[in-house]
């Protein structure tokens, strides 16, 4: 009787254990597969998100580089334009004044032919259009220029004092004075239309005199009125 009951209990326990074991075996793999499926789906989504972010990052980086390049190009263009404007402004600032002698007293002439006067005592030379080594003014821009010059010397009853303004090779106006004795002087002014590179200078007329000293009686001046 005891053996029968024990055998029956054993069968029941075996049956229950087998069923539970089967259910456990069935449930455990399903949980793993579900977890794996969820993890796989998450990984796929994460990879997709990463690719999206990388793509967006590349686009943003490209946009940033392009924007920086555009800004740099615009800045370079603006700098070039500013430099051109500064250069044009500097070119348009033209004015000079000069006298014959830097120091002491000297009488120039008379010469047998017209002779270019070199005004060495330069007080103003904005734009450096006047050359104190040659006495020649060169127009840096096309425009209207105004010039003034004066000439003087002591009268000796034989020689006058005369200076002519020359544009390229053309005599424009002459300042002229002659008297028996004492200091004599004359001055003139003119406005000229000059092209770029045209020259203006003053010549002492043949057989005339020019005297200069610390008072600077003989002068040559000019300035740009406006460009054209």
UniProtKB/TrEMBL annotation:
<keyword id="KW-0732">Signal</keyword>
<dbReference type="Pfam" id="PF00386">
    <property type="entry name" value="C1q"/>
</dbReference>
<dbReference type="InterPro" id="IPR050822">
    <property type="entry name" value="Cerebellin_Synaptic_Org"/>
</dbReference>
<dbReference type="GO" id="GO:0005576">
    <property type="term" value="C:extracellular region"/>
</dbReference>
<protein>
    <recommendedName>
        <fullName>C1q domain-containing protein</fullName>
    </recommendedName>
</protein>
<feature type="coiled-coil region">
    <location>
        <begin position="36"/>
        <end position="95"/>
    </location>
</feature>
<keyword id="KW-0175">Coiled coil</keyword>
<dbReference type="InterPro" id="IPR008983">
    <property type="entry name" value="Tumour_necrosis_fac-like_dom"/>
</dbReference>
<dbReference type="InterPro" id="IPR001073">
    <property type="entry name" value="C1q_dom"/>
</dbReference>
<keyword id="KW-0964">Secreted</keyword>
<feature type="signal peptide">
    <location>
        <begin position="1"/>
        <end position="18"/>
    </location>
</feature>
<feature type="domain" description="C1q">
    <location>
        <begin position="89"/>
        <end position="228"/>
    </location>
</feature>
């Amino acid at each position: 009787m005891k053996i029968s009951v024990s055998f029956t209990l054993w069968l029941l326990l075996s049956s229950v254990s087998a069923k539970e074991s089967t259910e456990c075996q069935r449930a455990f793999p399903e949980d793993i597969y579900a977890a794996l499926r969820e993890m796989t789906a998450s990984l796929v989504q994460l990879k997709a998100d990463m690719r999206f972010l990388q793509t967006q990052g590349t686009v943003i980086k490209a946009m940033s580089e392009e924007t920086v390049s555009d800004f740099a190009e615009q800045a370079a263009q603006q700098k070039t334009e500013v430099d051109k404007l500064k250069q044009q402004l500097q070119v348009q600032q033209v004015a000079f004044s000069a006298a014959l002698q830097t120091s002491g007293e000297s009488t120039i002439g008379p010469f047998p032919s017209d002779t270019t006067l070199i005004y060495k005592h330069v007080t103003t030379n904005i734009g450096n259009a006047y050359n104190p080594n040659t006495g020649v003014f060169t127009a840096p821009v096309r425009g209207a220029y105004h010039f003034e010059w004066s000439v003087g010397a002591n009268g000796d009853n034989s020689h006058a004092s005369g200076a002519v303004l020359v544009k390229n090779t053309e005599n424009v106006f002459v300042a002229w004075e002659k008297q028996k004795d004492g200091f004599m002087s004359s001055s003139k002014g003119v406005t000229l239309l000059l092209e770029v590179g045209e020259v203006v200078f003053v010549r002492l007329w043949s057989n005339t005199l020019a005297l200069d000293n610390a008072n600077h009686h003989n002068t040559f001046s000019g300035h740009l009125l406006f460009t054209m």
